[in-house]
Amino acid sequence: MRHGRVRAANDRGTTPTARILVVGGGYVGMYTALRLQKKLKRELRSGDAEIVVITPDPYMTYQPFLPEAAAGSISPRHVVAPLRRVLPHCQVIVGEVESVDHAKRTARYTTLASSDEGTGPASIAYDELVLAPGSISRTLPVPGLADHGIGFKTVEEAVGLRNHVIEQLDIASSTRDPAIRDAALTFVFVGGGYAGVEALGELEDMARFAAKHYHNVKPEDLKWILVEASDRILPEVGPEMGRYTIRELRGRNIDVRLETRLESCENRVAVLSDGSRFPTRTVVWTAGVKPSPLLAATDLPLDDRGRLTCTAALAVDGAPHAWAAGDAAAVPDTTADAPGRTCAPNAQHAVRQARTLGDNIAASLRGEPLTDYAHAYVGSVASLGLHKGVAHVYGRKLKGYPAWFMHRVYHLSRVPTVNRKARVLTEWTLSGLFKREIVSLGSLERPRAEFELAAGGVPPADPSADPPKGPTDDPSPDPKGSS
């Protein structure tokens, strides 16, 4: 018994002294559990502690590799790390935590079997809580965005976007309608941060190569547009490298529009705040993220941006035995010149915070002093396509091939497990020896369509197709939104 609650027996028939519940299997969730496995070896073996990880997916996605997965440089299965393999001493539950009552030290969650069981959410008690649910895409009420927008935050979205882009080349090559061809060959990306710039750079590189294999589609026929609401892109690499990136992209015939917003994408027409209108079948939304909505379903303190307020030791402020880091946490930046600043929500901080977090939880269980998290931001690297990149690291500015090479070396060193490092390195080596693969496997998103048609059923609709219009559909645009 601990904190007045009786523990259920573990697999060995003993009652664990402490149950650590980790919510989320992303950067912070996986690396914290991995660190705890190492720090609590003795307690885990004796049954004095157990680690439970509840996560929507049975894998951790290494998001910096999503652009290369979309471009086909890396196989999608090598962008993810299977949690059960990486965390053999943890109990991994694939499910969604719906709410947390920290006053009672309980969390309610559903699993893949919950709907079939008909019993509703289950409840789990814990002694130490690690909240690391990450973030979701920050969307705005732009008319048509929910119907036609494509996200770029998961490996499934990256693979789907690759298939979609190649499919547009097939459509443009086969149609005789110039309006359909123009819309198919126009690609609009909203958001000039890492996700948007790297995704656009890699996909434009891939599509330009693929176009060479079509008899009636030329690389210059493709129209790429980057829309950014602020006055610069890639702010993490500094103003000078940001301006270089704009020159590099424009030199590749990419239309970069600063201080511009997407106001509508209804009826497959992208309407920008500068008055431009582009018929397009591709609108990729990468305009930022926001904390997971799970945080609002807890009794823990949040800041004005919806993040958990934390101390420098990564404990939730005013909530003993609750911990957080990463996108979901407002962690004081102890290395900043100005007081009151918090750590940026990026992978560089998340991985290092997870290490400190695991150490502090282990120290707390043993009654040892905690350590404050401190890490000075060393800089950033970004890929702009094959052999192209920008970097601003330790005050040094690199561009072109050296920056691209540094990007690959850095992320290869950070991707988890030796297994993944070896597979990624092998794929990079092979891609240097052989040409890109330009096959679209869009049917993977509708694998039962052919069988359902053969069996006399109605196959599921193609999500990329235009929605049918009924007699009551209003063709007029909705009120304008902003991005």
Automatic annotation (TrEMBL):
Molecular functions per Gene Ontology: NADH dehydrogenase activity
The UniProt record lists the keyword Electron transport: no
Residues covered by the FAD/NAD(P)-binding domain: 19-353
Claim: Nuclease is one of the keywords in the record: no
SUPFAM superfamilies named in the record: FAD/NAD(P)-binding domain
Region annotation (Disordered) ranges: 452-483
Biased composition (Pro residues): 460-470
First and last residue of the signal peptide: none
Alphabetical keyword list: FAD, Flavoprotein, NAD, Oxidoreductase
InterPro entries (alphabetical): FAD/NAD-bd_sf, FAD/NAD-binding_dom, NDH-2
Family: Belongs to the NADH dehydrogenase family.
Name the UniProt record assigns to this protein: NAD(P)/FAD-dependent oxidoreductase
